[in-house]
Amino acid sequence: MSETQPREAVVDGDDEQATERIEDLRAQVDLLRSENERLRHEYARARQASYRRTALGLGAVGAVAVAGGLVFPAAREVLFVLGAIGVFGAVLTRYLTPERFVAAETGERIYAAQADSLGDLTGQLGLEPTWVYVPVEGEPPARLFVPQHSEYEIPDEAALERPLVVGDRDAERGASFVPTGGTLFREFERSLTGSLGTAPRPIAEQVADALIEGFELAETAEVAVDGDAGRVTVALTGAVYADAEAVDNPLGSLLAVALADGLDQPVRLETTRSDDDLVLTCRWDMDEGEEETDETAATGTVETDGEEPDS
Fold this sequence. Notes:
Blueprint: H1 4-71, H2 76-95, H3 104-124, E1 131-135, E2 142-147, H4 157-160, E3 164-165, E4 174-177, H5 180-191, H6 200-214, E5 220-226, E6 231-237, H7 250-263, E7 267-274, E8 277-283, H8 295-299
Helix pairs in contact: 1-2, 5-7, 6-7
């Protein structure tokens, strides 16, 4: 008994210490979680406060301009116009302030999980690393077709409605997915001042402007079009989704969906890296077995030799 009691006491002491460590860790986790939540709220409030200060500034400018119009009759018309612009801008800025801000890293991680799953699925099915965006009726306006063979044929629209495409001919077999740029395309369309273009260059420029100014998913864009070769290349710097190896890159997917819808024909997407740029290359009206001899496609760089023809 004299030997057993000390051992039991030691064991009990170890259990107590382990329990205390667990409780300490739980307390630290709770503290970190609450601190993280507080920082998120502070970040959101700081962003909203910035918008509100902008609204107040515009409102103050508008009020001063209106007051100046009352004091200086000679410049009344101009000052009243400036005042109206300031007040209108303040109202828009105040009531269009976003209530929630999502960090870019959050979107990247969510997309990375989807891209990994899609890549594993296409690899297990033995599909070709070829991404073809086929225009269809309804929502979204295009489907992503991944063929089983390098020499493929585009299946009919009914076959593309199902994830696994089993066509009448072996060349039509593959998989069909909803592209990430499909739902984003409708937001892109609503942001346009006019209608979607019907030629490659206008469509590519509209998408590039939306990625930079509208969605803020890139910093700059350089557009190159070769209508004779059926090719559009967009080089993006500062791209948020910059993984060129990922399946259905959202930036390239939006470009391909827009081209497929605007040109009303299948578009093949290739994404590569060139220095710090993400290079999106879309092709259409090409024979699937044609060898790519163009240096731009091989290296992923954008080359512009003077004016390039629009189609």
